[in-house]
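Schema walk-through. Below, the input block comes first and the output block second. Nothing else is stored per chain. Lengths vary across the set, and this one has 145 residues.
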Amino acid sequence: MQKFPFVLDIRRLGRDEWLALRDIRLTALRESPDSFLSTYNKERNFDDSKWRKEFDRGDWYIGSRDGRLASLLGITREPKTPLDQCYLEYVWVSPEYRRTGVASFMLNAVLDQLRAAGVRTAFLWVLDGNDVAVHLYKQGPGKVI
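--- output ---
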């Protein structure tokens, strides 16, 4: 694993932390409106039941440094997705941590966990024009498709 210039704590949000996902996603949508298929105006109107359902779509990882949010990464599956496959979704890095290696570090750490759990293929979508994301994934661990 690459050397990282500071400690980044990466953890999966627990079952009762759907409110944290809501807050982080709304922050990401407000801050980076052109990076996601959804919008702040759409998701801010989700009720609690919709947020719980959204949370249940996958596993949500956050990265933090000194208690401050640095990043988000979702790992999801469609109902018929084989267990050795998943989707990487909603990769977001807080502006203060961009271009510091946070996204690469987090992506590699989560992919290592997925490999250890038997996942062999991770799919992702990148919106046209998101050249930073394309660059990240092309330089990534090699088996991100």
